[in-house]
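Sequence design from tokenized structure. All designs in this work follow the same two-part layout: the structure record, then the generated sequence. An example of the structure record is given first.
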């Protein structure tokens, strides 16, 4: 396969259902895998809700739009919405002996620097879960909050923030292709 072939015929990528047929249709079948997908919108409109739904949808079999996989949720806004995740998991049970919360790994993020420290370890974390339910979805909620809270609005901080953000994005893309 040549680079020209890749441009003409992109490698098919699995998709993960959002749980909303209308949104899935708009996305061409769901959220694409092996890539970075950014969800941006006003505060309080449901971005975290969508992320939680994706964590559960990833566990569904491919025949139901899932990935038959575990997921990793890196969060920067506290507290972690465990109560809401439990409500969602009860609304869409996956089976009588299947506790979906057992297949969602949660890790708090304290700062943009902390995220940079965590990124290199993600690949080995994912490698350790190659069994029946491998990790195939990584959610960072919210990367923007990490950068917004740490930097002032002066030229030096804006330059540093942009540099760190793009470094994070690059590392996220590398890990995303591996998952």
């Amino acid at each position: 396969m040549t680079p020209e072939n890749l441009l003409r015929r992109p490698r098919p990528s699995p998709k993960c259902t959002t749980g909303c047929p209308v949104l899935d249709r708009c996305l061409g079948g769901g959220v694409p895998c092996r890539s970075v997908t950014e969800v941006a919108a006003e505060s309080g409109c449901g971005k975290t809700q969508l992320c939680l739904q994706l964590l559960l949808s990833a566990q569904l079999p491919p025949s139901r739009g899932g990935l038959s996989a575990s997921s990793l949720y890196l969060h920067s806004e506290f507290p972690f919405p465990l109560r809401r995740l439990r409500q969602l998991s009860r609304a869409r049970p996956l089976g009588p002996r299947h506790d979906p919360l057992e297949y969602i790994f949660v890790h708090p993020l304290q700062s943009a620097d902390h995220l940079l420290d965590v990124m290199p370890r993600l690949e080995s974390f994912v490698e350790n879960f190659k069994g029946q339910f491998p990790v195939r979805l990584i959610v960072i909620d919210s990367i923007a909050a990490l950068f917004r809270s740490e930097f002032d609005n002066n030229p030096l901080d804006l330059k540093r923030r942009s540099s760190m953000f793009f470094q994070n994005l690059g590392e996220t893309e590398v890990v995303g292709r591996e998952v």
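The chain has seven helices and five strands. We note this feature because it recurs in several other targets discussed in the main text.
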